Amino acid sequence: MKILQCHNHYQQAGGEDRVFDDEHRLLTKRGHEVLRYTRHNDDIAEMGRLTLARKTLWNSQTYDEMRSLLRREQPDVLHCTNIFPIISPSVYYAARDESVPVVQSLHNYRLLCPNALFLRDGAPCESCLGKLVALPAIRHNCYRDNKSATAMVAAMQTYHRLKGTWHHMVDAYVALSEFSRQKFIEGGLPAQRIHVKPNCVDPDPGFQKSAGEYAIFVGRLSQEKGLDTLLTAWSENPIDLPLKIVGDGPLCDLVQSAAEQSSRIEWLSNRPHAEVIELISNAACLVLPSICYENCPKTLLEAYACGTPVVASRIGALEEMVEGGATGASFTPGDAFDLFSQVVRLTASPLGLQNARHAARELFERQYSSERNYELLMSIYEAATKSRQNELASEMTRNLHTQSTN
């Protein structure tokens, strides 16, 4: 099978960029021919505001480049990871014009929410869910805290809703969780085209038997990740378990200050991925205190792969991914004392912690291994192909009917 991957890279590489590489490796290792079409957000610096707005809505250049590439290479499927903001939905139309099925992964909520997080003022917000125009987001400057930038994203959403892009140009969507799937259905995407396939971990780091002598947080140091809750839990409660924090971001000064004031908190900034995996492997638990609707955090899957239990906020997809009492524990979002209590309860018994380690690893093997992920991906490609074939057949029938009545 020949697959064309399409991805708009972020200025700061994140989970979507890693998944793009993971799926490339997943497919090539199994003998598929995988091509790539990419753009990078570094190019934005060379664009004026109006140019960027126009390209976000419809990029004629990427349409022409994509159609030429599709015509030349004739792939079996076009799989888009991220098309915002430079690539734009124009590539869907290029694929339609060349009769190539389109798959779009839904790593965030950009099609429904301008800031892609369903988050405002430190709390979940669904004010724009299901609306034709995201007026609440524009009013509150939800994207980059900028009204014109938010209006640009809202215009892209509205234009393509009216044009029927989300319903007719994408043959299969990939939601990362059942929670995410339901949100997109509420937002108006066709339910029959939304398939659930979580992320995976490849290569598999393997199960670790370490008892763990610290808790660890890995991720972007930003408000939506619940850093305030995390730091408060360790600063204001008697937790003997040290906390290691790996990552960087806008709240790095807050984290550094907390680390200077408490010997139980250590900030490691960014680390090479291999070192991060080792740190996760040797931790007693991974902590995910997010206050936003996480989709399918790679760090959670990496923890399960290593056999490290997870203590996570009871919110969004995290609630379905963490089996409380088995693979870790859940706590009320934003409640530092509840977080403290759950960490203490999970780590109080060495035997209980080892049982959680084995349960985490078993869940990884059952749901998040590369083998399972490949099976799901192939079934989605097959569904996209059938959807496109059915649409082409329906179109031919309509054309024949029109000709016969004229």
Number of helices in the DSSP assignment: 16
Q: In angstroms, what separates the terminal alpha carbons?
A: 41 Å
What does the radius of gyration come to? 22 Å
**Percent of residues in β-strands:** 15-25%
Number of domains: 2
Architecture of the largest domain, CATH level 2?
3-Layer(aba) Sandwich
Q: What is the number of E strands?
A: 14
Estimated helix fraction: 40-55%
Chain-averaged pLDDT: 95
Strand order, biggest sheet?
A: 2-1-3-4-7-8
Shape: globular
In terms of quaternary structure, the protein is: single chain
What's the CATH C level of the largest domain? Alpha Beta
Brief summary:
The protein has 406 residues and is an alpha/beta fold. The chain has 16 helices and 14 strands.
Polypeptide structure, described:
This protein has 16 helices and 14 strands. By secondary structure, the protein is α/β, with parallel strands linked by helices. The chain folds into two domains: 2-107 and 164-200 and 372-405, Rossmann fold (3-Layer(aba) Sandwich), CATH 3.40.50; 215-367, Rossmann fold (3-Layer(aba) Sandwich), CATH 3.40.50.2000. A six-stranded parallel β-sheet has the order 2-1-3-4-7-8, with helices on both faces. A six-stranded parallel β-sheet has the order 11-10-9-12-13-14, with helices on both faces. Helix 10 (252-261) links the parallel strand 10 (243-246) and strand 11. Helix 3 (60-73) runs parallel beside helix 4 (90-97), helix 9 (227-235) crosses helix 14 and helix 12 (298-306) packs across helix 15. The longest helix has 36 residues, at 370-405. The radius of gyration is 22 Å and the shape is globular.
